[in-house]
Amino acid sequence: MTAAELGRAGEQLAATYLERVGFTVLERNVHLRTGEIDIVALDGTTLTFIEVKTRRTLVTGVPQAAVTPAKLRRLRRLVGAYLMDASPPHRDIRIDVLAVLAHADGTFAVEHLRGVG
Fold it and tell me: Any idea what DSSP says for residue 65?
């Protein structure tokens, strides 16, 4: 599985997980002028922007460690740009990270970090 295929598999798994725990996935892979938002979803009345990080090994650290302070600043700017163009009905806004670890046996582990930014 290539890195791009792994990323797509992780994002599909993330979307399925979110729907299973009660989120409504509104959009995936939202392309904006300055970047991309992986998943936009509603968690009740909270508009949630989800960054998905998928890894095969922990050699470079846990997947969520890739969401650095600089990445969070970039995500906040992307959220602002998204809200200028499209704003589904919501009460609150939140940024989450979904960390996906692909095991060698083909299974995945998912960790959902809420309100990271």
Answer: G
What is d(CA 91, CA 25) in angstroms, rounded to the nearest whole number?
16
CATH 3.40.1350.10 fits 3-113, yes or no: yes
Token pair, residue 56, equals: 């095969």
Torsion angle, alpha carbons of 57, 62, 67, 68, to 10: -110
pLDDT at 62 over 80: no
User: For the chain, first and last CA: distance in Å?
Assistant: 31
Give me the residues paired with residue 31 across strands.
36
**What percent of the chain lies above the pLDDT cut of 90?**
56
What is the DSSP-derived secondary structure letter of residue 91? S
Q: 64 with 50: CB under 8 angstroms?
A: no
- Check whether 113 has a pLDDT greater than 80: yes
